[in-house]
Amino acid sequence: MSECGCAQTSGKMLCYDEAVAQLLAAAKPLSGTETLPIGQALGRILALPVASAINVPAWDNSAMDGYAVRAEDLSGPGVRLPISQRIPAGRAGEPLQPGTAARIFTGAPVPAGADTVVIQEVCEQAEGFVTLKEPPKPGANVRKAGEDIKAGQIILQPGTKLAPQHLGLAASAGIAEIQVHRRLRVALFASGDELVMPGDPLGPGQIYNSNQFTATGLLQALGCEVISLGIVEDSLEATCDALAWGAAEADLVVASGGVSVGEEDHVKPAVEKLGSLDLWKIAIRPGKPVAFGHIGQTPFIGTPGNPVSLFVTFLLFARPFILKMQGATNLLPTPLTLEADFDWPKPDKRREYARGRLAVGDDGKARVSLFPSRSSGVLSSAAWANGLAVIQENQTLKRGDPVQFLSFGELLS
């Protein structure tokens, strides 16, 4: 991400770079770990380094089906050797007698004395002999002991968010259990008298509470334990009660709505009454009002109530904050630089995170197009998109210009 060069002064908005830096500086990793079987550790954050006690592979083994030989026995094409033994995977053979070949299969231990495997496709077998039509290079098709992992080697570092390949790597070293950070407990509520839960009838002026389900899904995708406080009415007393209860029960409180300055927006004054508000206005679009502070010692993040603003600001600010609290080390997304399939003729003082879709054209080029509407109330744009196009402050773009793109594939994991 580029530096915006802004500094916070009274009454001025923070830019993205300084806002996220301020959030991350305040994020304190959780204490407490648990030990899990590796089959239950998917998506968790590794707490301690993982070292292998063994070499992987543990012994030289064949990378192909073929014949194990001694390279010094191969003088050229057409060499004919007697087959002295057969070694399937899972069995160890006898030391290879000089001047012979061992029939061997993928993954089987290479017998002592052999140093090369000739693939079966260049061999002819008949009457207990094998003829090598092509001489291999010495050492060909042999996977050496410790080629993947050496005994004592650190194979997984603390802070790693465990993906399937990490679990497979641990299993390959014989590791059955792994120590991870405990789950982050997050108290969540949506603010607004207009909100109704799906399945209930809508009254005049009411809308369905999509934010609870968007935010819950985002939190669960990060491995959090969600404590739902439901819908909180638009009053200072109710907002204070929800914040106090959430702060007592959870490691983090997240709220949507009520963070602006209207008469019915009570989150900001409630946070200031119960604790401290450390961050509020950010120079981005969508989602200018993003609240961050503390209720006692418990951190609080408040997002706008518009559904797209909630979605975008969670990804930009709540996600890295939560990852750091969980002990992760890879916190911020890596932007891709792609070709814009749109024009952006009017510069904006705020950085825009536009809902974008990356697609590969018939010419093989990856381009980013934008959803037609910039409205922060059009949640269908987030479902249409597969990432966010980042349009910098005061930037104009023409079709074909390079543009940064943040993929949901990374942001939603």
What does this structure look like?
It is built from 8 helices and 26 strands. The protein has 413 residues and is an alpha/beta fold. It folds into 4 domains: 16-32 and 182-325, Molybdenum Cofactor Biosythetic Enzyme, Chain A (3-Layer(aba) Sandwich), CATH 3.40.980.10; 34-56 and 147-181, Molybdopterin biosynthesis moea protein, domain 2 (Alpha-Beta Complex); 61-143, Beta Complex (Molybdopterin biosynthesis moeA protein, domain 3), CATH 2.170.190.11; 336-411, Beta-clip, CATH 2.40.340.10. The strands form 7 sheets. A 6-stranded mixed beta sheet has the order 7-4-6-5-9-8, with no helix packed on it. It has a 6-stranded mixed beta sheet with strand order 16-13-17-21-20-18, sandwiched between helices. It is elongated and about 90 Å long.
Labels describing this entry:
single chain; 413 residues; alpha/beta; Molybdenum Cofactor Biosythetic Enzyme, Chain A; Molybdopterin biosynthesis moea protein, domain 2; Molybdopterin biosynthesis moeA protein, domain 3; 4 domains; 6-stranded mixed sheet; 8 helices; 20% helix; 30% strand
